[in-house]
């Protein structure tokens, strides 16, 4: 599955279950591990788990591969590894604490205004 198609599939799956504050970070020049990071918030453990399940189902329906899902037990922070895209679905307090957007956007040579949308 092509990267842009996979990204759009993930965003649509998140929007379908009412994810909040969806952020896409282009990490291709920052790490060789994955090309995009998508971060979204869910209001409860139940919603974060539902969001992760929907991402997994929609990616598989579209012909993509889900490598693994971590964190479903607590639902505070669920990570969905799609290979070229890593999806972080977090409750707002956890997201604020770890502040992944700032961490990845503050990488050397990265302009804060250069977010992938």
From TrEMBL:
Pfam families: RsfS (PF02410). Belongs to the Iojap/RsfS family. One of its GO terms (molecular function) is ribosomal large subunit binding. Functions as a ribosomal silencing factor. Interacts with ribosomal protein uL14 (rplN), blocking formation of intersubunit bridge B8. Prevents association of the 30S and 50S ribosomal subunits and the formation of functional ribosomes, thus repressing translation. Keywords: Cytoplasm, Repressor, Translation regulation. Interacts with ribosomal protein uL14 (rplN). This is Ribosomal silencing factor RsfS. It is found in: Cytoplasm. The gene is rsfS. One of its GO terms (cellular component) is cytoplasm. InterPro entries: Iojap/RsfS/C7orf30 (IPR004394), NT_sf (IPR043519). GO terms for biological process: cytosolic ribosome assembly; negative regulation of ribosome biogenesis; negative regulation of translation. The keyword Lipid biosynthesis does not apply. Coiled coil: none annotated. The keyword Repeat does not apply. It comes from Nitrogeniibacter mangrovi.
């Amino acid at each position: 599955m092509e990267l842009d198609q996979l990204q759009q599939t993930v965003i649509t799956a998140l929007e379908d279950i009412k994810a909040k504050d969806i952020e896409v970070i282009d990490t291709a020049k920052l790490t060789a591990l994955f090309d995009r990071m998508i971060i979204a918030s869910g209001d409860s453990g139940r919603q974060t788990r539902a969001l992760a399940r929907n991402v997994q189902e929609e990616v598989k329906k579209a012909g993509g591969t889900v490598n693994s899902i971590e964190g479903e037990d607590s639902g505070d922070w669920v990570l969905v590894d799609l290979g070229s895209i890593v999806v972080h679905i977090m409750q707002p307090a956890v997201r604020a604490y770890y502040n992944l957007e700032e961490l990845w956007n503050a990488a050397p040579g990265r302009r804060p205004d250069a977010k992938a949308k």
